[in-house]
Description:
It contains six helices and six strands. The protein is α/β, with parallel strands linked by helices and 215 residues long. The protein has a single domain (37-206), classed as HUPs (Rossmann fold, 3-Layer(aba) Sandwich). It has a six-stranded parallel sheet with strand order 1-6-5-2-3-4, sandwiched between helices. The relative contact order is 0.17. One of its GO terms (cellular component) is plasma membrane.
Amino acid sequence: xxxxxxxxxxxxxxxxxxxxxxxxxxxxxxxxxxxxxxxxxxxxxxxxxxxxxxxxxxxxxxxxxxxxxxxxxxxxxxxxxxxxxxxxxxxxxxxxxxxxxxxxxxxxxxxxxxxxxxxxxxxxxxxxxxxxxxxxxxxxxxxxxxxxxxxxxxxxxxxxxxxxxxxxxxxxxxxxxxxxxxxxxxxxxxxxxxxxxxxxxxxxxxxxxxxxxxx
Length: 215
């Protein structure tokens, strides 16, 4: 009878490959987090101590089917409005996904701000801010921003500020924590945020072109 080869060596090799891949992936993630977040150190502030800037860029988030901003987006917009009311900024740039007729984050953001008393003529809208990198690069190259305050949730803030500063913007950030009461979406967002550092690092290294609206 022929000898039957044991599957143990094959399984051992497969296990080593999986373990090695996991280690390399983990190291890559840690390196990406350190690279992006490192640029944000010292530039994340509270509403009261953030340095004044010409513009506050409010990053988009989910809008409900009826056109009303989600609680996460409403909290960002309230922070942006407060920055304007306190004289910390002169203009607001709302940046989000507005490329589809049936879904327009910037339109919802403008409506919310003007309903809250912000003059429409101080609001700029970027309808192709499809992700944080796009929003930051387009703020610089298309909207002429050189110095700004970025407004988003606190778990997202270091990545956003880090991306902006790597792109050459004098960026500071103010983050919202009020929606932590929504524990499940906050936790999901926080976990996803860590993985998003890999894409952020890749975007910064490649310096890919941002998305542009269809004409």
